[in-house]
Design goal:
heterodimer, A: mainly beta, SH3 type barrels, globular, B: Rieske Iron-sulfur Protein, Naphthalene 1,2-dioxygenase Alpha Subunit, Chain A, domain 1, 2 domains, four-stranded antiparallel sheet, 14 helices
């Protein structure tokens, strides 16, 4: 089972993996614990998402990635 | 519904000709439910002040009648007022009093709304809704009309209500006495401290009639006057200018707004006030003189309690405050009180006023406590089967109202009671209930806007 990610701790610049295997950078966080706004870095399942912005729901955040 | 209730309120439970009002309109739960629809969904209601939402993303949670609403400023600085209820399952999308946020997120299932009300986040939008949900149709419910006037923010759910300035009519000049800077100019005001909120066990119309300009209940405040909470150390407020002013009640029968006013004689000097602090006294002396200069002859008119129908109570002078009387069932009122101060006033002035205002008004205010005690026990003693059979008397001064009233060259609009010799009148209270009864019966604004 995945570890529950606390969205309140995600600052802009953090990288995350989302449910469909895509990776994304947090660009803003409304700090509601429910959503983060991201820009997709990679999206193997749907390459058209790369570079686009989206709101990601908490239950779709799989884990936090180490930022280079 | 309109035909069923015709005659029940106008010249019925509210008998304006006789000057009597039935206790039923205060204690009857069915009438209370009707007035939520007839009065509160169709009137203009006070929401807040622009200084509370000065930046994009700022929000303040207010009320319209029983219903929670969000006043917010979107990314483009446009003001909005939304019903504070998620469109998916009704949960409040904002449970804080005020703050700044880019989105309002429902904690129940996670629907999320931008500050312009648009639905921007729906969990599982692709997987569960298959992107078929039309998000553009599920934004937050927005008021039909929103208006700002000299920093104050008003809204109505009713699209056919007249624009706010028309709703005010000639009462605007008396509302201005609550909104202008102390020197009579458009220099900005700000809310002093937070908004005080508290519950009173009485129907909302008790404070509404009181602040319409009840000129008869001074006896209730005698103990406060004896204590001397006023800013010069005597009485509950500075009374010097009032002792040589003409006292009037001004009411607008077609609108339901009314206020007390004082009119200084043309050659009257500026009365000393705020004598407990030389710096504050000097601030107000200068402001008063500028006010008399900038407003000309009308600078002689000073404010006294009034009411914008239905539930915005004005207290323009000492303290400078607006209170909203939110209905919370037939037997409870939640009172919210905003205090105002010149934004540019020195700290010493603001701090002095803060201390004076909270010892006068609000839950800690001695004067307000006097009033609440009356409303509380009047309501409780009017609920019984025997009590309900007996109307209240509002006959004081009935038939002595004047129109085209003039005092020392100042021609007043509306219907005026000169309290110079009469000392007291219940004109303003009758005016409030007359308008309330009209709202309870009128099927639409076609009938309510009788001046058109």
């Amino acid at each position: 089972m995945n570890e529950v990610v606390n969205l309140m701790l995600l600052d802009p610049g953090a990288n995350i993996m989302v449910r469909n295997g895509a990776t994304a950078e947090v660009i803003s966080n409304p700090k509601d614990g429910v959503w983060v706004v991201v820009k997709y870095l990679s999206s193997p399942g749907d390459p058209t998402l790369e570079g686009t912005e989206d709101m990601v729901f908490a239950q779709d955040v799989v884990r936090v990635l180490e930022t280079q | 519904m309109a035909t069923e209730i015709k005659g029940r309120f106008v010249d019925g439970l509210v008998n304006s000709k006789a000057g009597q009002v039935s206790r039923e309109i205060f204690v009857n739960d069915e009438i209370y439910a009707q007035e939520q629809e007839q009065v509160f969904t169709r009137s203009w209601l006070y929401i807040g002040h622009e200084s509370q939402v000065s930046k994009p993303g700022d929000y303040f949670v207010s009320c319209m009648g029983e219903e929670s609403v969000i006043l917010c400023r979107d990314r483009d600085s446009k003001l909005h007022v939304f019903l504070n209820s998620c469109m998916h399952r009704g949960m409040k999308v904002c449970r804080y009093d005020e703050g700044n946020t880019p989105v309002f997120t429902c904690p129940y299932h996670g629907w999320s709304y931008a500050a312009d009300g648009k639905l921007v986040g729906v969990p599982f939008f692709k997987d569960s809704y298959h992107e078929l949900l039309d998000k553009s149709k599920w934004g937050l419910v927005e008021v039909a009309q929103l208006a700002t006037y000299r920093g104050s923010i008003w809204a109505t759910w009713e699209p056919t209500a007249p624009p706010f300035i028309e709703y005010l009519g000639d009462f605007k000049m008396f509302y201005d006495l609550s909104l202008e800077a102390w020197n009579g100019t458009d220099e900005p005001l700000e809310v002093l401290g937070g908004v005080q909120k508290w519950i009173i066990p009485c129907n909302w119309k008790f404070p509404a009639e009181n602040f319409s300009g009840d000129s008869y209940h001074n006896i209730s405040h005698r103990s406060v006057d004896m204590v001397g909470i006023g800013p010069s150390g005597t009485g509950r407020r500075d009374m010097a200018e009032r002792t040589y002013s003409r006292r009037l009640q001004v009411a607008f029968p077609e609108r339901g707004h009314q206020s007390g006013v004082y009119v200084l004689p043309g050659n009257a000097p500026t009365a000393p006030s705020y004598q407990q602090s030389p710096a504050v006294a000097e601030y107000f002396r200068e402001a008063e003189e500028k006010r008399r200069d900038s407003k000309g002859e009308w600078g002689r008119v000073t404010g006294s309690p009034g009411l914008i129908f239905p539930n915005a109570a004005l207290h323009p002078r000492q303290p400078r405050s607006i209170a909203v009387l939110h209905p919370r069932g037939a037997h409870q009122t939640e009172m919210w009180r905003w205090y105002f101060v010149d934004a540019g006033a020195p700290y010493e002035v603001k701090n002095f006023l803060r201390q004076y205002y909270i010892r006068y008004s609000g839950p800690s205010g001695l004067t307000e406590q006097d009033d609440m005690e009356n409303w509380n026990y009047a309501h409780a003693a009017s609920r019984g089967a025997i009590a309900r059979r007996h109307p209240y008397s509002y006959e004081q001064g009935l038939g002595f109202e004047q129109t085209n009233y003039e005092y020392e060259g100042l021609k007043f609009p509306g219907q005026v009671m000169d309290l110079g010799d009469a000392r007291s009148s219940e004109q303003n209270l009758r005016n409030f209930y007359k308008r309330w009864a009209e709202f309870m019966e009128a099927p639409s604004w076609d009938e309510l806007a009788s001046w058109r």
